[in-house]
Amino acid sequence: MEPVLEVRHLTVQFHTPSGTVQAVRDVSFSLHKGEVLAIVGESGCGKSVLCRSILKLLPDTARLPSGTILVNGVDITGYGEREMTKLRGKLFSMVFQDPMTALDPTMTIGAQIAEAVRVHQPRMGRDALRQRVLELMTLVGIERPAERMGLYPHNFSGGMRQRSVLAMALAGDPAILFADEPTTALDVTIQAQILDLLRQIQRQLGTATVFVTHDLGAVARVADRVAVMYAGKIVEIGTAEEVFYDPRHPYTWGLLQSLPVLSRGRETLPTIPGMPPDLLHPPKGDTFACRNPYALAIDYEEEPPLFPITETHFAATWLLDPRTPQVTPPVGGGLHG
Amino acid sequence: MAEEILLDVRHLTHVFPLGRHGSVKAVDDLSFQIRRGEIFGLVGESGSGKSTVARCVMSLYRPTAGEIWFQGVNLCDRAACRAHRTMLQRERQLIFQDSTSSLNQRLKVWDIIAEPMRIHGIRPPRGTYRAEAEFQMHYVGLDAGYLDKYPPELSGGQRQRVAIARALSMEPELLVADEPIASLDVSIQAQIVNLFRHLQREHGFSILFIAHDLAMVEFLCDRVGVLYHGRMVESAPTSALFQRPLHPYTQALLSAIPIPDPRLERSRTLQTFSPDLASLDGVLVKEEPDHFVLREGGRP
I need a labelling partner for B206 at 20 to 30 A (CA). Which of A31, A260, A286, B270 fits? Predict the structure, then answer.
């Protein structure tokens, strides 16, 4: 099947007075119709930049020195602002982390969703428009939409605001939805509800979803595939089962181990030592080497390629090279059978 | 170990007036106790009144009704507060959620950490304020290289450590941490939680830990209180609460903890809680030692 979105060898750089920041380095992935891909990583690993670079929402200081972005087989890498405006909302749309800044506090929720609909269908009549807004609000699980259309964002709770933003993002029936930490600002219970909603919408409408988060625990519920990003690179990518049950990269091990659910009864939580590297001057070799308890001598010399484990599962670590000694992973494997 | 009670909150009620439209009862008849050397977790969704409790305990809000006893002083009694002002200000310290706004961006890290000592006119036991700041930073796991940095130069986790170091510089009896990890990455959250645990185990700090992330609370806290709409619906030792949650709201909260296991997680249905399931007019009933649940009319 042809992927809806294919990113090949994408590199994003920011030119700053103190030098060039390598925010995204040689990232390739593909996204199929109706699939949820979770991109997981610490803050500053380039996961948001990656999304924004596909939508071309980056500031002027950003450059894409290499890479191609194919949407439905069409290369959109060189598209300008005018062409992108036609695509945004219809082909892909985005839900941001903070729903309060994404909404206009002086407009009613109904008017804001209607505005998003009208951008795509300017000729829609008043009654049809109202109907469509009600339909979208019902879709995202806002109960009693007719009453709530006239309310303002400040009347809504955080979860309801995020649902409204989602309704606006879905107004143009996008083929791809980018959700950039949509649940980080929300409570645990609401987070679980929004995750279920994302999953349900993806099933109902067949929207492919890119779900960006720092919480590996949250993605088990929604993601079909998981990509783990570190210092601008995808270090491990695979189906959710592969990444959770059979993780191969030491960074994925670290992320999984720092989840308190997996460390019940322990005295301290295992943490990943050190700090993410400075992307102004990335270190030689594997950028994770200095934080990696399993680092080999070659990690400080040469960056590991993405080793294939199965057809869908890849990891960038020298531990997978046949010449290196076998290491028993501290998590996964036998843990869940 | 003697079960000495450090903080005793009795029937605390806090009402925010809303102009002519009435008022909001943020905290309603809340009682709990923190023993010396204990980490007490307060959990609940946003708007449940967790932060209001923290602010009442820190005397940032004046409670509408009820009593808060700390080291033999009733914090709701103005005269007593005035009489013990210095003690109260030193012995209680607050750590905020957002370290960006709680640290002065124009001060260097060591100035921030030393500021409470300057305010209280404490002569630094290690000679200079700078040496004292260095000691506190070492305590929270930051090296001396950060002494001359400004807060915006630090990462979120490092800033939160500076905020903790500042609170510790007073060597307080009680640390009140209002969602200290909510805005951090999961891997950094683990580091900060380990730090809190270290502070309690090795140095005997008592901590009121406010959070909405139950997984971290389970790992860190000795006892947990669950707040819902300003009422305590359940309070128990952590293991009892997580193994036998009795109130439907607690059960719904626990079911929302994500499990990092795709097959298990997808087959699970989430429990939801609607206020009709259980009345909030009941009283706390003792179910087993130290385990209290809100029951209607006092009966199960």
Answer: A260
Q: What is the mean pLDDT of residues A97-104?
A: 85
* pLDDT on residue A334: 47
B46 close contact with A: CB closer than 8 A: yes
Q: Where in chain A is the domain with CATH 3.40.50.300?
A: 1-91+176-337
* Interval B148-165: pLDDT, tens: 999 988 888 889 999 999
Pairing of strands B231-237, B291-295: antiparallel
Question: What does the pLDDT read at residue B288?
Answer: 81
With contact defined as beta carbons under 8 Å apart, do A186 and A158 qualify?
yes
State whether residue B124 sits within 8 Å of chain A by CB: no
Q: Find the Cα–Cα–Cα–Cα dihedral A270, A272, A275, A276, rounded to 10°.
A: -140
Alpha-carbon span A279 to A290, nearest angstrom: 14
Confidence of residue A325 (pLDDT cuts 50, 70, 90): confident
CA separation for the pair A5, B1 (Å, rounded):
62
CB B223 within 8 A of CB B238: yes
Query: Is B190 in the A-facing interface, judged by CB distances under 8 Å?
Result: yes
C-alpha R_g of chain A? 21
For the domain covering A1-91+176-337, report its CATH number.
Answer: 3.40.50.300
Q: Is the ipTM of this complex over 0.95?
A: no
Q: Which of B42, B97, B185 to mutate to test the interface with A (most CBs of A within 10 A)?
A: B185
CATH number of B5-298: 3.40.50.300
DSSP character at residue B191: H
Answer yes or no: do B188 and A215 touch at CB < 8 A: no
In terms of Cβ atoms closer than 10 Å to its own Cβ (0-12, 13-18, 19+), residue A200 is middle
What is the reported pLDDT for A333? 56
- Rounded to whole angstroms, the Cα distance separating A301 from A278 reads 17
- Interface list for B 198-237 with A (CB within 8 A): 198, 212-216, 218-219
Of residues B278 and A297, the one with the higher pLDDT is A297
Asked if residue A35 lies in contact with residue A208, where contact means CB atoms within 8 angstroms, the answer is yes
**DSSP β-bridge partners for residue B39:** B207
3-class state of residue B173 by DSSP: coil
Residue pair A315/A248 in contact by the 8 Å Cβ criterion: yes
B2-46 pLDDT, tens digit each: 578 999 999 999 998 877 778 888 898 899 999 999 999 999 887
Helix ranges (DSSP H) in B154-185: 156-168
At residue B299, the 3 state secondary structure works out as coil
Pairwise CA distance, residues A167 & A303, whole Å: 42
CB-CB under 8 Å, A220 with B265:
yes
Does the structure show a pLDDT above 60 at A337?
Answer: no
A261 vs B191: CB contact, 8 Å cut-off?
no
Mean pLDDT of A13-33: 91
Residue B113 has pLDDT above 60, yes or no: yes
